[in-house]
Design brief:
Largest sheet: 8 strands, parallel
Structural class: alpha/beta
CATH topology: Rossmann fold
CATH architecture: 3-Layer(aba) Sandwich
Number of helices: 5
Shape: globular
Number of domains: 1
Radius of gyration: 16 Å
Number of strands: 11
CATH superfamily: Isochorismatase-like
Strand content: 15-25%
Order of helices and strands: EEEHHEEHEHEEHEEE
Helix content: 10-25%
């Protein structure tokens, strides 16, 4: 195979125009929406992340009104963490950059899982709560960075046979390529569903419906 050139053709992404999920066994996972990634002055800001805040807020409001569970992943590092050999120092526990952005502040009933790597399931309580406590099978995953922590969390969910849904206006990447990669991988390799907008997702009584 030839080395990719400056432009790469994006394979078709099978967009869903409507995804209806059963509220009783669905959850929303908010990935790493923390000051260091979202806010001006953060150490690893994703420029597109701030623009997703309003969309994520709308989705969370819809989910909460339907009784859908909400979980957050919180990238968390301490002195000597080997990830700081890969990336600039970021999300140090108890720092401003580590905090989840105020616009998406978790509520009392929400789950917050501190994680030390890209995958939200790795070394956290996430799977235990989703499977054993909440008994959910459908996950809407939002947040940043699309091709890193969002994708690895979505992949880990897919490998555990959760149904995964990604609204593209609620995830943010460093490049258009990374965004396309995430949507392609989730919809193809992990047989998830991708929508253009959070508004295309609803939480209802009954079975999953997709068009």
């Amino acid at each position: 195979m030839e080395i990719p050139g400056q432009t790469v053709e994006v394979p078709d992404i099978p967009w869903k125009t409507r995804v209806a999920l059963p509220a009783q066994n669905s959850a929303v996972i908010v990935v790493d929406m923390q000051n260091d990634f979202v806010k001006e002055g953060g150490s690893l800001v994703v420029p597109a992340a701030a623009a997703t805040l309003e969309n994520v807020q709308t989705l969370l409001a819809s989910a909460r009104s339907a009784g859908v569970h909400i979980a957050y992943t919180q990238d968390s590092h301490v002195e000597g963490d080997p990830e700081w050999d890969i990336w600039p120092r970021h999300c140090e526990v108890n720092s401003w950059g580590w905090e989840i952005v105020a616009e998406l502040a978790p509520q009392k009933e929400d789950l917050v899982c501190q994680k030390s790597r890209y995958d939200g399931f790795y070394g956290t309580q996430l799977e235990h709560f989703l499977t054993n406590v909440w008994q959910v099978r459908n996950l809407v995953i939002v947040g940043t960075v699309s091709s890193i922590c969002v994708l690895h969390t979505a992949a880990s969910a897919g490998l555990r046979w959760f149904t995964v849904v990604l609204p593209s206006d609620c995830i943010s990447a460093l490049t258009e390529f990374d965004q396309a990669l995430t949507l392609r991988q989730v919809s193809w390799l992990y047989t998830g569903s991708v929508t253009r907008n959070a508004a295309d997702i609803s939480f209802v009584e009954g079975n999953v419906e997709q068009t």
